[in-house]
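Milestone 3.1: sequence recovery, worked example.
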């Protein structure tokens, strides 16, 4: 069938067959389908949607457009976690190491910052010498020897997704749940995983700010992944405030190291790490139930095994062998660190979390264009959580900036992001829902 006929069929609201989807996606990757036709297809899907069967077919077609990794020689389950993104979301750094300490193998292929949200790869690039995009042989070696390697996407992994995403990015079709699902999962399926846990964020700092939208996306991800042969569970977690008390790159790595060593653990961050970790341990068959799985994850963190696996991964990928012991010696720091005080006393009643992410971008800790360089040292630390009682001598947080001018702007941004009121607000649920793919 001609590409335009496939596009017409979807435009008119009809369900596409697996063969039609494969024909269109393979043609896009090979140049037989033009970018204009790809854009028309994306817009048709945006308005008409896709059935679960179509989403499975689209995901599989994009996965099969490039290399598919094989980890069948690993002595334990190959597992991963993916977050839809948030502020202060450095979960991957601790979680992947904890799962390795529990007997799993985590070949985590992560992304860079997108919009107002931080990227795991940008955080790791703050570590001197760390090779975030190694060749496949080193990637496999590190996963086998340390149980975990967190790297960036390789060019030959789901290349059709990269092509379609670039089209979506400039045609206002990014928000389609069907296309988001296929984009995320095609890369995860190509990574050769045996189990996946999704962390779908909702709230003021999430791409899916409404709970209804987050549930739709979580259900789509869990159903499509499981239907494509990758057992998946999704948790919907809160992003109405930063998850960690730090937001940036170097500052979030330090926060993660403090967490792993027990120097300081943000309570909400710890709860999310353990909840996601328990799901990964369970889905990998490393524990018989969630209660036992939680105990294994908490023990790996409390006993220092997770910290040991993190350090081994960093060293194996070219980073300092003493990063855990001397993080401040190795990680970049900003020349200007200033406290931010609220204009009034009261309670933190709301936080415009997305605005904090945008403030990090404005400081230089994120990108407004794909080619923009990142300043790893800038960001915020000691960010106060919702419900905190504010006094005149308690800062909302600290700004880490490259110049006084940048610090002044970030201070103003942070003050605007915090809403202070006379009464302590009700606490938001941390985990709103748990959604399993059918068959789990």
């Amino acid at each position: 069938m001609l590409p335009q006929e496939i596009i017409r069929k979807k435009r008119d609201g009809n369900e596409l067959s697996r063969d039609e989807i494969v024909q269109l996606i393979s043609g896009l990757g090979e140049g037989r389908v033009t970018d204009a036709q790809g854009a028309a297809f994306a817009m048709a899907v945006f308005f008409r949607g896709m059935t679960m069967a179509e989403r499975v077919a689209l995901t599989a077609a994009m996965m099969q457009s490039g290399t598919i990794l094989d980890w069948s020689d690993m002595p334990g389950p190959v597992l991963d976690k993916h977050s839809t993104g948030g502020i202060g979301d450095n979960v991957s750094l601790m979680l992947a190491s904890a799962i390795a300490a529990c007997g799993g193998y985590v070949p985590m292929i992560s992304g860079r910052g997108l919009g107002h949200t931080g990227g795991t790869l940008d955080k790791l690039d703050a570590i001197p010498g760390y090779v975030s995009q190694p060749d496949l042989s080193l990637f496999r070696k590190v996963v086998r020897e340390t149980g975990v390697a967190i790297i960036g996407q390789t060019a030959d992994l789901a290349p059709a997704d990269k092509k379609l995403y670039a089209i979506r990015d400039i045609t206002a079709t990014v928000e389609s749940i069907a296309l988001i699902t296929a984009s995320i999962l095609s890369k995860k399926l190509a990574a050769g995983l045996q189990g996946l846990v999704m962390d779908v964020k909702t709230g003021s700092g999430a791409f899916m700010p409404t709970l209804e939208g987050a549930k739709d996306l979580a259900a789509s991800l869990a159903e499509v992944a499981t239907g494509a042969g990758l057992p998946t569970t999704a948790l919907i977690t809160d992003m109405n405030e930063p998850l960690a008390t730090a937001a940036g790159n170097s500052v979030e790595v330090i926060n993660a190291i403090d967490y792993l060593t027990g120097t300081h653990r943000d309570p909400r961050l710890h709860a999310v790490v353990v909840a996601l970790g328990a799901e990964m341990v369970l889905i990998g068959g490393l524990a018989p139930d969630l209660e036992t799985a939680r105990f294994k994850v908490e023990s790996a963190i409390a006993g220092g095994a997770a910290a040991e696996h993190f350090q081994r991964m960093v060293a194996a990928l070219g980073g300092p062998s003493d990063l855990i012991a001397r993080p401040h010696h190795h990680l970049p720091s900003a020349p200007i660190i200033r406290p931010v005080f609220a204009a009034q006393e009261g309670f933190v009643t709301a936080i415009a979390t997305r605005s904090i992410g945008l403030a990090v971008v404005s400081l230089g800790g994120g990108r407004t264009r794909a080619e923009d360089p990142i300043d790893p040292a800038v960001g915020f630390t000691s960010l106060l959580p919702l419900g905190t009682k504010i006094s005149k001598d308690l800062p909302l947080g600290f700004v880490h900036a490259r110049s006084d001018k940048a610090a002044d702007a970030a201070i103003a941004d942070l003050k605007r992001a915090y809403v202070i009121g006379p009464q302590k607000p009700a606490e938001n649920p941390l985990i709103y829902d748990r959604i399993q793919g059918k068959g789990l």
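The longest helix spans residues 211-227. Residues 333-421 form a domain with the Aldehyde Oxidoreductase; domain 3 fold (CATH 3.90.1170.30).
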